[in-house]
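Subject: Cation-transporting ATPase

B.,
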Amino acid sequence: MVFLTVGILRLVTHWWQHWLLIATHKCCPLATAQKVLVRELYQGKHVIHFVCEIVTLSTDSIEEIRRYPRKWRRYILPRDIEDSTGTSLELSVPTGGGAFASVDTVRLFRCKQLRYIWRPSCNAFVRLTGLDDGVCSVALHRHKGLNPVEQKRRRMVFGSNEIDIPVKGVLTLLFLEVLNPFYVFQIFSVCLWFSYNYIWYAIVIVAMSVFGITMSVIQTRRNQRALMGTVGTTDWICVCREDGTAERIETRFLVPGDILEIPTTGCQMNCDAVLLSGNAILDESSLTGESVPVTKTPLPCRREVILCTKEHARHMLFTGTKVIQTRYIGSEKVLALVINTGNSTVKGGLIRSILYPPPVDYKFERDSYHFIKLLGLVATIGFLYTLISKIIRGVSATKIAIESLDIITIAVPPALPAAMTVGRMNAQQRLKRKAIYCISPRSINVSGSIDCVCFDKTGTLTEEGLDMWGVVPADSQSLKAALRDVSRLPLGHLLSGMVTCHSITMMEGELKGDPLDLKMFESTGWVLEEANVEDHSKYDLLFPTVVRPPDAIEGAAIGIVRSFPFTSTLQRMSVITRGLTDTHFTVYCKGSPEMIHTLCQADTIPKDFHIKLDIYAQQGYRIIAVAFRPLDKKVSYARLQRLSRESVEQDLTFLGFVILENRLKGDTTTVISSLMRANIRTVMVTGDNILTAISVAKDCGMIPKHQSVITVNVKSTRDTHELYYNLTNSSLPGANQALNSMNHDSIDSLYTADTCTTTHTTLTIHEMECGRSEEYDDATMLPPDLPSNNYRFAMTGRTWGIVRQHFPDLLQRFTTRGVVFARMSPDQKQALVAELQGLGYYVAMCGDGANDCGALKTAHTGISLSEAESSVASPFTSRNPTIACVLDVIREGRAALVTSFGIFKYMAAYSLVQFTSVLILYSIDSNLTDLQYLYIDLFIISVFAFFFGKTNAYAGDLVKQTPQNSLISISPLTSIALHLIISIGFQVFAWYHVQAQPWFVPFNATAHADEFDHGCLENYTIFSISCFQYIILAFVFSKGAPYRSSIITNYGFLTAMVVNTAFTLLLLIYPPAGLASILELIVPPDINFRLTLVACGALHWILAVVVESFIVEVFVLKKLRNKFRGPSPRRKYIQVEQFLRQNPAWPPLTVLAPFGGASGTPSDAPVPSAPTSPTSYAEIGAHAAFDRSSVLLTLLPNPGGVTLNPAGLRVPPAPS
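Prediction pasted inline below.
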């Protein structure tokens, strides 16, 4: 069949490889299958097929596998086993719970770099996992290492410990690029042109195609090398054997179950491992983007602890990270158990997300394929018409074949891919001049449709580092005035906690650690000293680390005995210290205020804790709470090392707040303002505290001043989850004390968001520093600025996860109106981007860390502000680490999209106009001459297509309306149809007009039956009028503002326009004899007829401008299109927004008793039922500054004894 179809069948099966599998294989049970077809369904509309070959591993099959092609063999057998002879061994496969079993045969296949093995017990293929699949901590600690034989057995199944990146050679990439359907059609067209000596244009098309293919291959190779550069090479490491000996092996030989001995000088991790003993300090910047050393501690050996790599990340050593230093007690070694190897590691997952990104559903590209199919249908009709009509007229077979096939290349322009490529490359070069580098030019067009941008916070919206703002000491009654100069803080527990509770270490004479810890410690002026001994001896000392005051006060030095590192799950860290003159140990703990609040004794918490916390948080400060606890004098050093973290971090005494500020970058506010003016939604996705994130969102304008924020929270029990809503607004809350003084029973009528008000406070941070009381007798309140439905949601990653799992019907509402998503993990960031895309948004993601890689790759447009891993995953990388690049990318994307749209319309219209011209001439067996074709294709079409994309992006503000991205819609189709009708009308008029002239002589096809001689009066007329039409179409389709600059700024395009118009006028009015002879023009003798054609061209120009500027742009695009829209919008987020506006009673808010400020929890009051939402609560935080016209004031006792209720204000009845 391949030979009978001249290779076309094989070409089709190359494009759709699963068709080849279906054609050459038959379905059978998985137990006997040789190949599997894996279908991956993405978002319910994209289906990706993978054809995978099943390999049977056994002693007998190894010789057979060695005969596989090298590129397949290396994915199955480790290199040393592949090169060995006479191998005879069993295989070791995981059976769950950390256990392995020996088997003789294993069936497996690879898909997306992962291995799937046959599990007879469940009659299915399951993903091959290491020791991270529900393994108990005790089982992990029982591992004693593997002997070489067992290691080899497992390596046969797991493969070498290497992250495989398929690297294709230049010839392979070239071959694959050439087999693209567009280039295959170009090859067909070029071969046809060469067959009848239409050489020059064929050479131009070949040159443009070679250029496009070469640039694509170069970029692909560059991306491959960049990706290879992120994967570490093999190294050597010491492993512990089962018999207690140690052996030094290559890291590519590691398998799950090996025990590593981490050297004291550090090493590069080439696998995922869990720490069993000792401590390790790691640099995880390659994964997290944070260049902060992280301390890892051993996994607790408790039966109830089940290993989870995310939950126990503080015990995990991940691939790609670097161990800087290790510490251990006495002669005990720092040991780690290998959990995962190769592509199954965390780094392998990152690489796989780059190699296999989710498909981007972009309407312009999808419609372009549909439009080409439409042109193909037109070409087929023209082909059949030409074939039949010429057979009837008795034209020679050669001429029929050439002209029938030629009509196909006319209707479907082969130069279209090259023209589209040139437009994108111009945009890519303009971005490069702005220090923005694009590794995927296809993404430039997509960025033109962006209407939602997600931003990371730290390092993206704000500066990377932190600055110390001050401290707020506390006593049992209240928080004292803020102390801005930390050096003036007197010696006491608060200062001791600041200088000891940190993860700072001394490396090569320089302090290293978390920026927050460093800033806090450095602000005190104290000095950190580590004992000048070998690392392995430090735990033998009572005080391996000592901190001293700068003035060396006698006996003020403090030794840090033991530390519990910070974890995002626990939101705290703690240390056990002892003053050099003390007789007991002291615990200092610092962390999020909410967490420290739960660990402190209630009588040590100041009454204004929540008020001050809310005010500082709403100002965007990073707030750290500090507490302490003295241990019993009977606690010895040996007993101290055995204390659990839970027993240490309890019954604490609250000491105060340490406040740091994270400043916005200089252009953050300006960029956010520009995006919001352009109606582009902005969303913050961060791992930081939610109150801090909300404050930063307000500071940068992401949350306008008139807008309220509802924080979605979860109240969880063992089996149930309930949502409640904390209603805040755009200014400082700070009214908790005032609200607490109310009669709580009177606040039971505010049960929906419909009564949301916007209030303001007059209390400033400066007044708080001065110790002003929060008793506001002179408070005033302002009425709401906008309708009550004007609110946005904020939530944490934990809430997001629970909503996705338990309340999926509400997820779209929260996503549609969500503005701040805090404490989000990398997976949750990626899921949020996908959810926004599912709602119909075109999403851009801007981040700077490796933890943003998944979201950057999933988004329609990913913009990295870092040159680490995130730049490999992201289509765009900015050398200027500010979000100003987002405006540049969107601006250039809009210009590129409009350019691509214009080029596509121009090439389609040009092909249809020429298709019409040729069919008209075919009716008399004439045609355009080769040089006429060459002049049109090379000097008009190619020149305009080349300069089309040279127009710069519009330099003004972004407009609210995004450019059109659908070719199959009423506006572009109407535009092309109207211009085509006008063009055909003028051609038909000129055709009949020339035939009506007294000097007209018809073309004699019989006299030229055996020649390709097409010169005649009809040819001259159609050629002349069509040349005008190609120039006119280029002019009307080259749009300017508001997406591109005016064409008068594109000097190349303008010059081409003037030169081509002048040359066409010359050919039309008075062509030189030599030129007329070359183009085979038969010039009419009547000058008036030629001037009539010029008048037709001028009238066509005027009509085309009127049609495009007024009929299409105004009537069709802005008025008629709305009439054809259905009753419900196509984009899902608009439907959700309409629902929220039509249902102001959602979310349902219930009673809170008592009020506890922003940190309160809902009471057990009854909840009004809602058909589409779960049991929900809301917490209303009112501001301290009350207006006498507020709904809240109607619930307060009036000092004058007069009840105030503003006219027309609806107060709903309380829920029964």
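Residues 365-412 form one domain.

T.
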